[in-house]
Amino acid sequence: GEATFGAGQRAFDISQDGSLLVYVAATEDGPMLALKESNSFESRLLKGTEGAFYPFFSADNKWIGYFTRSHLMKVSVSGLSPEMLISTRLPVGGVWMADDHIIISDLDGANLIRVPSAGATKQPEIMPMKSSSYWPSKLPDPEQILLRRSNGISVYNIKTGQSKRILSEGTTHK
After folding, report:
1. Computed over its alpha carbons, how large is the radius of gyration of the chain?
2. Residue 8 CB neighbour total at 10 angstroms
3. Cα–Cα–Cα angle for 42, 44, 46, nearest 5°?
4. Do 152 and 169 form a contact (C-beta atoms < 8 A)?
5. What is the tens place of the pLDDT at every residue in 54-100?
6. What one-character DSSP code corresponds to residue 33?
7. ∠ CA(45), CA(75), CA(69), 5° rounding?
8. Among the four 70, 75, 128, 153, which has the fewest Cβ within 10 Å?
9. pTM of this prediction?
């Protein structure tokens, strides 16, 4: 399949062990997730993922999280029916943590939301941000994530809510 890239949209992810690639494929029915194993030339579409964007793998590589216009979804790499986890508005990336929670950037970066990957059996934890925070990424410390911010790149501690900027916007190498 052909990967679709929208302005600012991450259109693919690689599993932690490097064995799988998920990407947003252009199909006759619109964007849809496709899965490719590293030892194969063929990809397969994951049924029910129409309208998908910003895909990301679970820590165990058995699930793929993704967004639709109004929901955080998950689908098994084996191709079972997708499951809706929570409603979202203006999501800007997500990361599946080792503790089986998903952290998403919602409301165009205004909030981080921590959601159990099994679904929101209780109210998701909302972490309001002082500045827009996009594209959460895993770090080796399971209590920290990397965030793209309007003023650079920061490390954010999920437990304490403390943030430390590690790269300023406009920084150049000298």
Report:
1. 16
2. 10
3. 165
4. yes
5. 999 999 999 999 999 999 999 999 988 999 999 998 898 999 999 99
6. E
7. 85
8. 128
9. 0.86
DSSP 112-142: EEEEETT--SSPPEEEE-SS-EEEEEE-SST
Name the pairing type of β-strands 111-116 and 101-106. antiparallel
Is-contact 94 85, C-beta < 8 A?
no
Q: What is the DSSP string of 35-103?
A: EEETT-S-EEE-TT-TT-EEEEE-TTSSEEEEE-SSEEEEEETT-PPPEEEEE-SS---EEE-TTSEEE
Is 76 buried (19+), middle (13-18) or exposed (0-12) by CB count in 10 A?
Answer: middle
Instruction: Specify whether the CB–CB gap between 43 and 25 falls below 8 A.
Output: yes
Distance CA 146, CA 164 (A): 10
- The amino acid that residue 42 corresponds to is E
In this structure, the chain runs to a length of: 174
Q: Which residues pair with 153 in a beta bridge?
A: 148, 167
Which residue in 71, 98, 118 sits closest to 158, CA to CA? 98
Classify residue 170 by its DSSP letter. Answer: T
Cβ contact 151:163 at 8 Å: no
